[in-house]
Amino acid sequence: MSQISASDVKALRERTGAAMMDCKAALTEAGGDMDKAIEILRVKGQASAAKRSGRSTSEGVVASYIHANGKVGVLVEVQCETDFVARNEDFKEFAQEVALHIAGAPSPPQYVSVDEIPEEAKEAERKVFAAKAAEEGKPENIIERIVEGQISKWMKDVALLEQEHIRSDRYEGKTIEQLREELAAKTGENIRIARFARFAVGEDEQ
User: Residue 55: its pLDDT value, please?
Assistant: First the structure.
């Protein structure tokens, strides 16, 4: 069995963000091969994330954000598994940052995730995109492909989890879903954005 040095464990931790004991175990399993150890951690991380996603989320917080002009406000419910995590500063900050994003997003989200978008909403958009493509004189044999591409883009535009956080410099261009995944990995709990409401003076509720 190859000897695993502390410097190798540290290097793997810096590259993956995994716990020291997990890094040591992965390096041991990989026989000291750094790339193989990274792959082992990635697979285990995906497996643990899948397990977390099925766990009950009965705790959490409701965060709010009111824009300085008093004309836009947001409420968002973010859930977790335990009261301990619900009181965690990182968790509360995440909920607050999600509320801020919803308030300021150039294209305000309408749904939490792509999975929540009802079929009738997709069908309505399909008809609009198809009619527009026909008006532009696109050949019939490629209209369907064009429409499906536009639908895919539209779904990402209106789903909160797919949107890049508006504070892109602070969060390195990460999406809300990527930030949620990072917090779930850090806390070891299933983190879920349950619902949100956006209010703007003179506009219907989003």
Answer: 63
